[in-house]
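Name: Sec-independent protein translocase protein TatA
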Amino acid sequence: MGSFSIWHWLIVLLAVVLIFGTKKLRSVGSDLGGAVKGFKDGMKSDPPGQLNDRG
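Structure predicted for Sec-independent protein translocase protein TatA:
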């Protein structure tokens, strides 16, 4: 009952590619990347109401 080796992960990856196909995985990866980018951009921008409330 050891940890998973690289061969276990390669077999799992191969099974996922065979089940879903590369086109579907590419679109899921693209959607996930866009969501992460949008989240990062949202975290960088400050809400306008908090900039001048120190009065």
